[in-house]
Amino acid sequence: MQGAAAVGALTALFVFLVPLLLLFRHMRREAAALRLETVRLTEEPDALRLVQISDVHLKLLRVPMPQIVPLLREAAPDVVILTGDYIDSPAEMDRFVEWLGALIDFAIPAPPASPAPPVPTTSAAPLAPVTSAAPPAFAPATDTASPLFLLCFGNHDHRAFDRDPARAKAFLKRIKRLGVVVMEDRTLSFWHGGKLYAATGFKDAGQFPYDARAAFRGLPKAVRYHIGFSHNPDRALDLARERADRPPELFLCGHFHGGQIWMPFHFEYNCLRKEKLCRMGMRRGLHSFGGRLVYISRGLGCVLFPLRLGSKPEITLFLIR
Ligand SMILES: [Fe+2]
Asked: What is the pTM (predicted TM-score) of this model?
């Protein structure tokens, strides 16, 4: 009898534990399986190349920088937009600033291993300048070939500094010192290929009311294309209440992590989340809503567990007319 019980126990172990361990291993691998997604909104050869990076969640990030850099070089962006959720506590501030600095340096080739290889005749990633030679007064103060970096914050970032606003100010200062433009209810216009573009960053819909007057201040009357971005997709509901002809034409956001860990019957969206857009069926990827395109990134990192299922981390390249 004892022998039969042991065989039973071993069988149960094999039937339940082994698949569970395999699933766990798969989910850990998926959390590191970064993909470069491309959203082609034009076929024009001189398109504006815009990269979105969302939901970094540095604490449980399974995608290391050496995996991100080659994809960024492949994307060769003119503009990089980060759409929130970087840290969970002020203690992660230093690490994030360091991470952001490394991200900005993506176009800088790694130092040669010794002995030094011959100097290449072509650059690995020639990046187009964002501003024209003579930008107007409202254009950003960038005059180099480096991409323009724009950033807004997410619910996790705001919560991290809830009890320590003084450190929030220091965090902002350090981000700005890297040359990144913080876009919280702010519009910025820039030149690319002789055409004027505009970007508007909105504060997180989960924490702040919609403030169109502040957000659109300084928006030029005629721009080639207008990009909006925020962390929480529900900001698109506020934009949809604007007149249909009101910009932006494309709205970028994240927050949902594409579900991060797949659940049947959209359980997370229907029962665990209070956001409206996901209940309306807009959970990831490109949608047409409120007279504009809305893109919801699956993000880069993880919350709660360093695991993903059915939702690979992404960096997204948009080709814009
Ligand atoms: Fe997030």
From this structure: 0.86
